[in-house]
């Protein structure tokens, strides 16, 4: 009887250990999706920046360049999280970029950033927490907070299109946090010192 009990206990311990080392499959899938999304956003916003410059909206061009650099940080953070969780970042699959007028590009970008910050990333974070995938939670949260700020910046740019105030943009290269001014000492999201932030021209 004792032998059977011992075998049962050892079996349970083996199962727990196996579960603890299992890759969080759904979260890795979400990270791969987010990696592709951010890589494409990095490319798309760089193209939108050139279009804004061509149309004489230099301030909007600067905003799109800041967002592009931010998305690059998210892409890299997602890749790091994928590798920490035992996965391998997929090859980048570029999407065809539909370029409209600067107004149309801002409207499309606002819609996309709102969806990511309000719907996509919160869902991904929930699943990552359920899987105890802290690296993914961290990476997803970096992106969620930055995308929410991008949405605000795009909405303001749309509301003032043609009379946009000349302001600077600064991006944290670690988490992608984007602001119109440098933090007092360090990034409020990831703690990166202000001296490491990038000024976007």
Describe this structure in words.
With 201 residues, the protein is mostly helical. Helices cover 66% and strands 4% of the residues. It has a single domain, classed as Ferritin, core subunit, four-helix bundle (Ferritin), CATH 1.20.1260. The protein has helices at residues 2-21, 25-54, 58-84, 102-130, 134-159; strands at 169-171, 178-179, 198-200. A 3-stranded antiparallel β-sheet has the order 2-1-3. A hairpin with a 6-residue loop joins strand 1 and strand 2 (178-179). The N and C termini lie far apart (75 Å).
Helix/strand-derived class? mainly alpha
Q: Report on the biggest sheet.
A: 3 strands, antiparallel
- What is the domain total for the residues? 1
Low-confidence stretches: 1-21
Number of helical stretches of at least 4 residues: 5
What's a concise summary of this model?
This protein has 201 residues and is mainly alpha-helical.
């Amino acid at each position: 009887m004792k032998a059977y009990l011992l075998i049962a206990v050892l079996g349970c311990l083996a199962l727990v250990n196996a579960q603890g080392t299992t890759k969080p499959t759904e979260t890795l899938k979400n990270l791969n999706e987010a990696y592709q999304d951010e890589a494409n956003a990095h490319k798309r916003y760089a193209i939108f920046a050139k279009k804004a410059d061509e149309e004489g909206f230099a301030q909007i061009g600067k905003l799109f360049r800041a967002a592009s650099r931010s998305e690059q940080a998210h892409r890299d953070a997602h890749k790091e999280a994928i590798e920490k969780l035992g996965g391998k970042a997929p090859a980048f699959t570029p999407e065809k970029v539909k370029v409209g007028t600067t107004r149309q590009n801002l409207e499309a970008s606002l819609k996309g950033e709102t969806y990511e910050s309000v719907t996509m990333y919160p869902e991904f974070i929930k699943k990552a927490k359920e899987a105890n995938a802290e690296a993914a939670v961290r990476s997803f949260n970096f992106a969620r907070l930055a995308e929410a700020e991008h949405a605000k910046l795009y909405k303001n740019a749309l509301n003032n299109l043609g009379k946009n105030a000349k302001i600077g943009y600064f991006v944290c290269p670690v988490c992608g946090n984007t602001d119109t001014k440098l933090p007092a000492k360090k990034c409020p999201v990831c703690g990166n010192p202000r001296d490491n932030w990038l000024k976007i021209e």
